[in-house]
Amino acid sequence: MSFKIFSLIQVFIFSFCFDCLASVKQPEFAGQFYPAQKEELSILIDSFLEKVPPQPVSGEIFMLINPHAGYGYSGQSAAFGYKLIKNKSYKTVIIIGTSHHQAFNGAALYGQGSFVTSLGTINVDEEFVKSILGKDPEVFQADSAFSNEHSIEVQLPFLQKVLTDFTIVPVVIGDCSLESCKKIALLFKEAIGQRQDILVVVSTDLYHGYDFQEADIVDEFTLDLIKKMDYQGLYYALRDGKAQACGGFAAVVALNIAKELGMQRLEVLNHTNSARVTGKLVKGNWTVGYSSCAVMRQEGETMLTTQQKQKLLKIARESIGMYLESGKKLPVDESDLVLNQKMGAFVTLKQHNDLRGCIGNLIGSQPLYLTVRDMAIEAAVGDPRFQALSLSELKDIQIEISVLSPLEKVLSAEKIELGKHGVLVRRGNQSGVFLPQVATETGWSKEEFLNNLCAQKAGIAADAWKDKATQLYIFSAEVFSEKGAEKE
Which of 399, 395, 394 is nearest to 376 (CA)? Predict the structure, then answer.
């Protein structure tokens, strides 16, 4: 008996230690698909990015579709997408690749730990992964599915060069029915919710064959379906062999996610193939197609539904009332996935159309509904510009809530759009912020807006925003109030 118990303990300890070691995914394709040396790899990616001409797109990028061949073949094509997200403020990148060597059904996720490249280490967003697992047997954790699989790994150095402070959700798609693709997409859609700080990267090449002329014809057909975001048509065309993409089912899942989140527009940024890259336009040579595409969030998309806005306004009012009456915070619990996302928010109080308090949190550190609860109380009793609100005044207060997108650092004021962007200015230890509606309410020009932001809010020189030592961050806000809610 004692021997058996000891053996079980040994097995447990061995398994535990093995899992710890296995959670750090070391690079397997450095020196094959891309340079193994850090400096050489960094210089190569920089050269790819520098060669991409300016290609402005309207709207925020939600998804990229990028190739995953050796950098000498597909790196320049991939750079078209990655240049567009350089210095953006994504916190989680979902990378959906394909399984080249292992056969399974559904979607395999890498559950915990990190991936290592010569440019550094990227942690897995374990919280996001946990929110997906356990809900459908076709979506499961299988770290082994990422062994000897390049579709995820080759995207990582590009991401490390254009983004900072982000985590990843690695996903490998095996064989799937269309219904399975839809189920997988819905799980990811629910986990993403209304988060604006998530990027989806699809890792796929296109045509594979021995005819470079046929490659153009097949890729044109495949890209037409992708451009239309016709994930069902793409699925059946892949099954019939009319379309070709080694990560085709990954694209089907990702396009389905985008459509479920209300996105309708995809742009093809670049298309080429290995024959054109190498100059070997000879029939009979093995040819692979590459393309870079981007899916944009539509202008005017809302983060919250009418019902969610009404819930937040109710929480804000009841929180102020309870605190003024008892000095206690409102005990509240919310199951809505969107309201549980960590988002920044400001609560503004107006009394007879005059400002009576405004406090907020730019970077969400807790679920949105709790941020609104706490900021409502702070706006009522903690704004140093006003006396604390009394309970008798509450009936005359109109509550306005601004739910914020993630901060995005900009290098100059040229990217600031008045009425659309709020702005955070920071110089040393001093900072100040204006919400987007400030420009609309005051009628200020951009220069007046920024001068007042620096002088009034940050306590620095009015023209400090022109100095490169001053940091500028922009964000958008979804603004709604009790007055507006009455009309909805």
Answer: 399
